[in-house]
Amino acid sequence: MKRAHDVVELVDQNLVMRFGLTGVMQSMCVLKIGNYCRLYREGLELRARFTDRDDVIIEKFPNETLAENALGVASEALRGQVAEKPARKSRWKRFLPWIVAPILVLALLEALYFYTLSDNNESSAQSIPLMPYAEQQASGLDPLLPVLGPVEQTANHMQREPVLVPAKFAQLLGEAATKGYAVPFAVHDGQGAAETLYVFSDPNCIYCRRFDAQLEVLGKKYTVHLFPVSVVGEEASLRIGEQVLCLPPEERTAWWQKALQGVEMPSLPTASSCKEAVEDNNQAFRAMQFRGTPTILNGLGEEVPERVPHTAEALDAWMMSARKR
Questions:
Q1: For 171, what's the count of Cα atoms within 13 Å in the CB-facing half-sphere?
Q2: Is there a contact between 204 and 233 (Cβ–Cβ < 8 Å)?
Q3: What is the pLDDT of residues 201-236, one digit of tens each?
Q4: In the CATH scheme, what is the homologous superfamily, with its name and number, of domain 141-153+161-324?
């Protein structure tokens, strides 16, 4: 029997969606872009709002995380359609200087604010104590990040304050990768921070499954450490992550890729430290206020900018530019 998948495709002026893997209704939905207004999430439901008729429910999901992930996938497809449209001449171009000037002033003030804040964080981050689990101490594993307290989850993630400076976070990621928190997706001897990628990935994330092929290409050139998280698939992803991290390092990559393809892993005994390692990865993901999976960072602890597509070619160019700075 063929495994169900989530399908979100833009066909001409129609957005075709069927959430056969993560949805509850699992029905096919076709939206005409011409009279489309916007997509939004209402609780566990993904809905569409039109200008000429009532809102419609596209799909229902078991939890809000999956609903938010579906909204992101559909919104990305719509942004691609908008980008293909030719730019139209606007009558209000003469007002452009009045719009641009305040934006530039705000951007300058924000840059000054974050520069001051990063200096403060750099001086204080060194003194945050680690809080290891007893089982992790016995097995040689230490937590990936200090316990920073709960992070308030809001709908607006646009304003984020840095928790750790990139260099410190990169150091912690490197240490965690050597202590069993990551899948050694690709390791090349002798490579340093400039040739290293860190990736936070959820096996039940649609984006992560699509990104796997690009990651294989990048792995031929760069060292890649992949940190399993369960921020999308919750218990299902947690189970996969702990099973993979309990395998010998040389077997983890193959089974991780099988899990992304929907292959069910055999039931093997797992240690509590493996589950706690995934939970620590989740804690680090939320503490750093990352917006979604996959989250990609270079060996200097810098996150890939939103403007950079998640393709091997674009990420390689971004990595090369970071080496020149």
A1: 7
A2: yes
A3: 999 999 999 999 999 999 999 999 999 999 998 999
A4: Glutaredoxin (3.40.30.10)
Alpha carbon 171 to its chain centroid, in Å, reads 20
Using CA atoms, how far apart are residues 169 and 165, in angstroms rounded to an integer? 6
More confident residue, 4 or 11: 11
* Residues 35-73 as b or e (16 or more Cβ within 10 Å = b): ebeebebeeebbbbeeeeeeeeebbbbeeebbbebbbbb
Report the distance separating Cα 278 and Cα 239, nearest Å.
9
Specify whether the CB–CB gap between 61 and 20 falls below 8 A.
no
Instruction: Name the token pair of 27.
Output: 């029905």
Tens digit of pLDDT for each residue in 144-193? 443 333 333 333 333 445 567 899 999 999 999 999 999 999 999 989 99
Residue 127, pLDDT above cutoff 80: no
What are the CA-CA distances from residue 266 to residues 210, 255, 259 (Å)? 24, 10, 11
Token representation of residue 296: 């990609």
Give the residue from 150, 176, 204, 189 showing the smallest Cα distance to 273. 176
What residue has token string 């892993």? 265
- Collapsing DSSP states into helix, strand and coil, what is residue 5? coil
pTM over 0.70: no
Please compute, for residue 219, the number of CA atoms within 13 A of its CA located in the half-sphere on the CB side: 16
